[in-house]
Amino acid sequence: MRKPDREENRRRRGLGKIKPIETYPDEMVNVAERPDYQEVQTRMAVALWTAQVAVGDAPHPDQPRPTDML
Hints:
Elements: H1 6-13, H2 38-54
């Protein structure tokens, strides 16, 4: 029996297909500006800056410094 190639595996799993929006209704809810997610957004911004510093990467000029950075 022949082993399926990578493209065949991708097709079987549905990768690369455009699926109806109804398939993933939660993926269309942008919570970035909701106040109850502000703490999460702040933690993620600080984590991004910290990771960039750790690998010697400079933030993009348009990337504001998080206000909670020490």
